[in-house]
Amino acid sequence: MERSTATDPGTGPGTAPVPGRADAVVIGGGIIGASIAFHLAEAGVPGVLLLERERPAAGSSGKPIGGVRAQFSDPLNIRIGRRSLEAWRAFAARPGADIGFDGVGYLFLLGDATELALFEEGVATQNALGVPSRIIRPAEAAALCPYVDPDRIAAAAYCPTDGHALPVAAVRGYLRAAVRHGATVRTHCPVTAIDTSGGTLGAVRTPYGAVRTGTVICCAGAWSQQVGAMAGVRLPVTPLRRQIALTGPLDPPPPRIPFTLDFASTAYFHNDGAGGLLLGLSDPRQEPGFGRDFDREWLEPFRAAVARRAPALATVPAGHGWAGLYETTPDNNALIGESPDVRRFLYATGFSGHGFLQAPAVGELVRDLYLGREPFLDIGPLAASRFDGPAGEPGSAGVRPEAHII
Fold it and tell me: pLDDT tens digits for 178-227?
């Protein structure tokens, strides 16, 4: 199998002919595709080819908040998050890159008894699975994050082992390591068609040639529905714009704080690494679509939300920012599995904002699915077929709603 000629998978040219054959074609050069390519190549799988239509991390992976946590309500997400956290902490040794991991913890602010009861249940599940989260009183939350007004919350949920890292550095670290292990990376190389016959894959077509293959792994993020459709596979993924803003350096500089979120409103903030803060909110008014233009309309509900929890931030300046796409599913849980209709069409997508934090474990899971190994976790409940019931939406049999979402 031809090795990539690019010394840096993040900048390599895409006009070179693609290999005529590949054992596995990974579609998508974001954090999920990069992790899968690395794990496959590291395991000795020959002929791993990753195709990215733009540059690595050009889509959602280049614009997430970089949070990594195991504080979830669904036991599957807790186990995936915990295993991924172990990999993020060890990333400098394997695969070998500095991703700026900062273990500041995650702090969920809870406004009333209903939210507290939900998180008490979540903490009990997390603790049973080895996650050291706990419910803390308002005064302790304010000590961890001085912006928080303890009189305006009922309690908080805190896990000291969570934190945040640099997504683009992680993507590049995975891809460089994948190339070292023999994978080929082609950037600026979109997939234009996927040939199938009788439920069997034949080839992936690109502007630079066709690649004969028996395995396709769809990791195309917000564009996964279109990629799946090329092979006749239904992947219920909907794009939804999310935005953040950066304050720029503040005077005085902010204290080192946990990744802090108001659960009710989804407003969040954390240190940006440059003497300021990163601000964000999952704006409920946002309509589905592929628009990625940054605007400031969402700052109004953000400021209203933080005024109720951290009043000092209600007037903090918001400088530049960006907009990216969540790849959402009806139950806000990922799609991981193999199509029952097209053999060896694998997929890992629809992470609904959790792709970066879950990427290391997902790379392991898809590697084991490809190799026919027993994975550390049964991914059957995450199959896209859970939406194949009459409704195809939450409420159908098998749907797994995740409560701890942003």
Answer: 999 999 999 999 999 999 999 999 999 999 999 999 999 999 999 999 99
Single pTM value for the model: 0.93
Helix (H, G, I), strand (E, B) or coil at 51: strand
| 142 close to 168: Cβ distance less than 8 angstroms | no
Name beta bridge partners: 365. Answer: none
Using CB atoms within 10 A of its CB, is residue 383 exposed (0-12), middle (13-18) or buried (19+)?
middle
Q: CA angle 326-327-328, nearest 5°?
A: 100
Q: Which domains does the chain have, with CATH numbers?
A: 1-100+164-237+329-406 (3.50.50.60), 106-160+240-325 (3.30.9.10)
Which element (helix H / strand E) includes 323? strand 321-328
Distance, CA of 61 to CA of 34 (rounded, Å): 10
Give the whole-angstrom CA distance, residue 7 versus residue 391. 48
What is each CA distance from 125 to 85, 267, 313, in whole angstroms?
17, 25, 32
Q: 326 in helix, strand or coil? A: strand
Cβ(63)–Cβ(322) below 8 Å: yes
How many CB atoms are closer than 10 A to CB 392? 14
Per-residue tokens: 262: 């108001």
Could you read off the pLDDT of 269-297 as tens digits, one per residue? 999 988 999 999 988 888 888 777 888 88
For 299-327, what is each residue's pLDDT tens digit? 999 999 999 999 999 999 988 888 888 89
| 330 Rama class: left (phi>0) / alpha (psi -120 to 50) / beta | alpha
Question: Which strands make up the sheet holding 216-218, listed edge to edge?
Answer: 184-186, 48-51, 24-27, 216-218, 345-349, 335-338
- 192 with 24: CB under 8 angstroms? no
Helix, strand, coil share (%) of the chain residues, nearest 5? 30, 25, 50
How open is the CA angle 394-333-264, to the nearest 5 degrees?
A: 80
**What is each CA distance from 371 to 145, 338, 346, 365, in whole angstroms?**
45, 12, 12, 10
The number of CA neighbours under 13 Å toward the Cβ of 360 is 21
Residue 43 CA from chain centroid, whole number:
23
**Can you tell me the distance from the alpha carbon of 13 to that of 208, in angstroms, rounded to the nearest whole number?**
12
Question: What mean pLDDT comes out for the span 228-256?
Answer: 94
First to last CA, the chain: 41
